[in-house]
Amino acid sequence: MINVEWARPELQKFLSAARVVQKDDGDFAYWTTAEPPAAVLAQAHVVEPILDRLVPGWPTMPVHGTNDSWDQHREGCTRALVALDREQEIRENLGEDAPQLDASHLHPWVWEGARSLWQSGHHGEAVRAASRKVNAEAQNKLGRRDAAETNLLKSAFSTDPAKPGQPRLRLHPNDGSDTFKSLHAGAGAFAHGCYAALRNPASHDPQDELSQDQALEQLAAFSILARWIDQGELER
Predict the structure, then answer these.
(1) pLDDT value for 119
(2) Which parts of the chain sit beneath pLDDT 50?
(3) Cα–Cα distance, 35 to 26 (Å, whole number)
(4) pLDDT of residue 56
(5) Rounded to two decimals, what is the model's pTM?
(6) What is the pLDDT of residues 160-218, one digit of tens each?
(7) Beta bridge partners of 20
(8) Which of 6, 148, 149, 180 is deepest in the core (most CB within 10 A)?
(9) How far apart are CA 172 and CA 137, in angstroms?
């Protein structure tokens, strides 16, 4: 959770530093920021990750300011302050105050792969990048480069004993139980679904951009898969 008591004054500090004012050097008047450029830049470094968290896609949102280089940041900070102050109220008055999923709390492989594209508003490409990261980490853990994605993970979650060049991932001890069989069959099917139904169609038609909600759901699916791969015990 974001530290509201820290974030709010940092946003306000940027708005104060980047405020447009008129100054006079004795020969002519000109418009500039209230604080020197270096001070504004330093505060921008602090507020940008706050904006990434509170106002996804803020760098590409339309602005209505003075057309200087800090307009995007000013509007982002204004939106972020409203989000801090009134988000709970907005959720309560628009309907059910349901839990919200924070993308930064997804498995690190997924969020590391998706972060930069997600923050720039490229949600579909963020999902594709996350899927590639999960595949790469699975290949690293299994020590395989001869297979990828669906084929790699169906083999990894197979209930058959490990073979030379085909290690397995075990989510439950192989005790011959139905739990062992169903868990690994389900994990293999889930991996197939992630890559066949989510990653592959998106790659074939990248112009069909996902909404933010759709993309977040898909990132959550890859996060589940990533946790299974990460936590699975390697059997050689």
Answers:
(1) 84
(2) none
(3) 19
(4) 86
(5) 0.64
(6) 999 999 999 999 999 989 999 999 999 999 999 999 999 866 555 555 578 888 999 99
(7) 33
(8) 149
(9) 20
Burial class (CB in 10 A: 0-12, 13-18, 19+), 54: buried
CA 84 to chain centre: 20
Question: What is the rounded radius of gyration, in angstroms, for the C-alpha atoms of the chain?
Answer: 24
CA pair distance 145, 203, nearest whole angstrom: 21
Separation CA 133–CA 213 (nearest Å): 21
Whether residue 219 contacts residue 114, with contact meaning beta carbons closer than 8 Å, is answered with yes
Geometric angle at alpha carbon 28, from 24 and 31, rounded to 5°: 60
From CA 131, how far away is CA 143, in angstroms rounded? Answer: 18
Q: Which residue has the tokens 């699916």?
A: 221
Give the pLDDT of residue 128.
93
Supply 82's token pair: 């409203």
* CB count in 10 Å sphere of residue 71: 16
What confidence score (pLDDT) does residue 94 get?
73
User: Which 3-state string (H, E, C) describes the chain?
Assistant: CCCHHHHHHHHHHHHHHCCEEEEECCCCEEEEECCCHHHHHHHHHHHHHHHHHHCCCHHHCCCCCCCCCCHHHHHHHHHHHHHHHHHHHHHHHHCCCCCCCCHHHCCHHHHHHHHHHHHCCCHHHHHHHHHHHHHHHHHHHHCCCCCCHHHHHHHHCCCCCCECCECEEECCCCCCCHHHHHHHHHHHHHHHHHHHHHHHHHHHCCCCCCCHHHHHHHHHHHHHHHHHHHHCEEEC
